[in-house]
């Protein structure tokens, strides 16, 4: 029986859903990449002398925890491969301890709004993914008949916009389109008051981050979340999810909705928790995304909501583009923040970005695991096979050193466009190894991203 093992991971700090603190343990992985045994003590290679040397990993004092499941990523292939692609995006994921990504339906051309379009995406992704990948479908006006076939084809949910998405091929929906479907919302929506507000913005300084912030006030998110929570209550057999919550003013509404038993989940992003509007330097369009990074005081309230469970998960919303679309080919004081593409690139850096901030706040490794893996697995229906280290689960594991620091430089970034607001920052948390279904896909000691693309489609 022992002879069938493909990999063994042992260490003194292994975190599972069963313990609040990491504990000594040994994980045995079978030839199918599943966890076949979990032993509550550290082992030595002597017990596994039939294994090749590099098939026995002693993680020492590094943290060993379930791989990160980033449930909000834009890989933009096919169609916008100068922005990102399956290969570069999933290599970045592997380097960041992310073992599963869920790709968004928009910014690829075509968007994932029909089964035919979905097939084009799967074809484009074939043989290029270093980590496992699932897909969301999109809802746009008039594609209601495509939703059931898309579910049958394996999408994990649908994303719809209540405001201009930023790309022409993915128009926003209205309340009628929203009924009878399974949904995730980009929760910003304009009202007639906001239209007037937008007109007065034309006179503002377009190079200032503040002008952009004023153009996307919290009220847009409140309008949308009020509609979404109302619909979620009305159609309570459908699970509803709010993507990238930024507005803390909406927290009470969400809390009330959840306490009424509405099946609602909410995510926020690394940038809303770890960046603030006050710190955006002049011309730094790499800090721009929609909804926007808001003030420090807003960030504090998001942290409270995350810690009390009102916010379920933290994702990257990795939404890259070229440096030109960010206006970065211009001088700092000539960059138009209003016009620049709204999206932040974080995929490889989520764990250290969040840990650096969470550490200061006294958060535990179990907190990180809950926000980054456990709750995102559940959100996309993967909790029976991913998001935990336990017998029968896929051996998706990240091994990292929380005490070690590194500096974000262009050299280490695996995603296509080396544009990120975290450039130059010193972060706590160095990923040592990433394991996807028993395959080592990232090894800091062996040239970083290694092996061949082992990612499978979660459809
Ligand atoms: Zn997004």
UniProtKB/TrEMBL annotation:
SUPFAM superfamilies: Composite domain of metallo-dependent hydrolases, Metallo-dependent hydrolases. Its EC number is 3.5.2.5. GO terms for biological process: allantoin catabolic process; purine nucleobase catabolic process. GO terms for molecular function: allantoinase activity; cobalt ion binding; zinc ion binding. Pathway: Nitrogen metabolism; (S)-allantoin degradation; allantoate from (S)-allantoin: step 1/1. Keywords: Hydrolase, Metal-binding, Zinc. It catalyses: (S)-allantoin + H2O = allantoate + H(+). It holds the Pfam family Amidohydro_1. Residues 63-441 form the Amidohydrolase-related domain. Its cofactor is Zn(2+). GO terms for cellular component: cytoplasm. Belongs to the metallo-dependent hydrolases superfamily. Allantoinase family. NCBIfam families: allantoinase. Homotetramer. This is allantoinase. The lineage of its organism: Eukaryota, Fungi, Fungi incertae sedis, Mucoromycota, Glomeromycotina.
């Amino acid at each position: 029986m022992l002879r069938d093992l493909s990999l063994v991971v042992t260490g003194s700090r292994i975190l599972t859903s069963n313990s609040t603190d990491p504990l000594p343990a040994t994980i045995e992985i079978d030839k199918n990449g599943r966890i076949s045994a979990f032993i509550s003590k550290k082992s030595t290679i002597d017990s596994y002398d039939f294994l090749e040397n590099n098939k026995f990993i002693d993680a020492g004092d590094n943290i060993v925890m379930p791989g990160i499941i980033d449930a909000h990523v834009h890989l933009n292939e096919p169609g916008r491969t100068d922005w990102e692609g399956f290969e570069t995006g999933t290599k970045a994921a592997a380097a960041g301890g992310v073992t599963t990504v869920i790709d968004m339906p928009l910014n690829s051309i075509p968007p994932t709004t029909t089964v035919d379009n979905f097939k084009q995406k799967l074809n484009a992704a074939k043989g290029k993914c270093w980590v496992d990948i699932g897909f969301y479908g999109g809802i746009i006006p008039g594609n209601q008949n495509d939703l059931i076939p898309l579910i049958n084809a394996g999408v994990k949910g649908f994303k719809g916009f209540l405001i201009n998405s930023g790309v022409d091929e993915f128009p926003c929906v209205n309340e009628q389109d929203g009924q009878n479907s399974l949904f995730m919302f980009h929760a910003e929506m304009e009202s007639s008051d906001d239209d007037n507000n937008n007109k007065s913005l034309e006179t503002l300084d377009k190079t200032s981050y503040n002008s952009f912030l004023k153009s996307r006030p919290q009220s847009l998110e409140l309008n949308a979340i009020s509609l979404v929570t109302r619909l979620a209550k009305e159609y309570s057999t459908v699970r509803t999810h709010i993507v990238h919550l930024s507005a803390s003013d909406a927290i009470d509404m969400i809390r009330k909705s959840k306490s009424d038993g509405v099946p609602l989940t909410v995510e926020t992003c690394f940038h809303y928790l770890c960046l603030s509007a006050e710190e955006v330097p002049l011309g730094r369009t790499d800090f721009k995304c929609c909804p926007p990074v808001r003030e420090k005081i807003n960030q504090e309230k998001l942290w409270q909501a995350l810690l009390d469970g009102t916010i379920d998960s933290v994702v990257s919303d990795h939404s890259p583009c070229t440096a030109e679309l960010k206006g970065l080919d211009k001088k700092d004081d000539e960059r138009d923040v209003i016009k620049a593409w709204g999206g932040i690139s974080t995929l490889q850096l989520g764990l250290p970005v969040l840990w650096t901030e969470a550490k200061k706040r006294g958060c535990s490794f179990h907190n990180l695991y809950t926000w980054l893996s456990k709750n995102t697995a559940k959100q996309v229906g993967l909790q029976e096979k991913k998001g935990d280290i336990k017998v029968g689960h896929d051996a998706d594991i990240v091994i990292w050193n929380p005490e070690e620091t590194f500096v974000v430089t262009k050299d280490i970034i695996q995603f296509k466009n080396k544009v990120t607001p975290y450039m130059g920052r010193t972060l706590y948390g160095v990923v040592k190894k990433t394991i996807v279904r028993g395959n080592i896909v990232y090894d800091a000691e062996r040239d970083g991203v290694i092996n061949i693309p082992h990612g499978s489609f979660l459809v």
